[in-house]
């Protein structure tokens, strides 16, 4: 134990003589550890966030949209519009496909909304059936949701998002108030829970919900819908349900074989898989940057240790002359290189955890700290120091006391 303490004091004194180079070597190891921890923690956070966003849209969900995806260039695409996706199509899917547990047809369009002196332009108004809550996993926080009776009687009632409630009413109770949606006065019967932004980038708290038939008759005067959501029995049923829906709608719309569909069936699991691929690419690039940082840190330790060995030829020769063994010399210099790497690794771990938590808080991501990532980063920092110290240590053992005394 005394020998270890003595070696540590010698190491600190030696490294203190080369403060700037020691600091640069520590900084290299720090950046390697820091970047690797950031990449692993944020990758876990983004994966968890994607899962949460997918679940927030609804469990085991397929989205059937009118129109088809048209692509321009490598990354630009949009959905064309079509006018032949109907409520009857949704009923046919619900009645004719065994994998399906629920279908929710919806229509939507942007309208200006006004309450007293406050006007909100271009607010998304969505016509929905009562089962929208269950299928989309989107609940009323205050009041009630729309009912079948509201839709049958074309009642002019509205359930507002929490963002709309705050903008129009502030701290006041919105229930029972009447707002103007375009030219239609509607009574507020409910306020939805806060939901945030979905996978498509739509702020779900900044929209209004009205009964489906009221929307079709009083707002857009049409018979077709934009979308319907299909909930399946379980995750394994998504693929066969998607194929069955496509076959059924082709028959109902009389689409000939080889002709482009006038609808699109979207599996949210596919969307999540594409997003995961993008995150994997970011993670790989981050790990490459971390590896480069570790390499630079290792080269920094190697250079400073070679310099230290050259500067301490006299000390090494005297220690060999008074009986120090080669393994004592190796141990001394490995301790010094390990001290540099451990210092950089500890600072990198602390900074990586702190920055990961801060970034997750700012981006509203779930905070995730990968224990395996922390362990791996710290072990790599130690390994970089030990490996970088091997060559200088062996070089130090080749210094002969006689040569030192002659010089």
Give the gist of this structure.
This protein is of the alpha+beta class and 407 residues long.
Word description of this protein:
With 407 residues, the protein is α+β, with helices and mostly antiparallel strands. It folds into two domains: 2-53 and 273-406, no CATH class; 83-261, no CATH class. It has helices at 2-16, 19-57, 87-96, 132-136, 148-152, 162-169, 212-220, 238-252, 268-311, 313-321, 326-363, 371-397, 401-406; strands at residues 61-66, 69-72, 76-79, 100-115, 118-128, 140-143, 157-160, 178-181, 184-192, 207-211, 227-232, 263-267. The strands form two sheets. It has a six-stranded mixed β-barrel with strand order 4-5-10-7-9-8. β4 and β5 form a beta hairpin. α9 (268-311) packs antiparallel against α11 (326-363) and α9 (268-311) runs parallel beside α12. Mean pLDDT is 83; it is low at 71-80.
What's the arrangement of secondary structure elements?
Layout: H1 2-16, H2 19-57, E1 61-66, E2 69-72, E3 76-79, H3 87-96, E4 100-115, E5 118-128, H4 132-136, E6 140-143, H5 148-152, E7 157-160, H6 162-169, E8 178-181, E9 184-192, E10 207-211, H7 212-220, E11 227-232, H8 238-252, E12 263-267, H9 268-311, H10 313-321, H11 326-363, H12 371-397, H13 401-406
Parallel strand pairs: 5-10, 7-9
Antiparallel strand pairs: 1-11, 1-12, 2-3, 4-5, 4-8, 4-11, 6-9, 7-10, 8-9
Helix pairs in contact: 1-11, 2-9, 2-11, 2-12, 3-8, 9-11, 9-12, 11-12
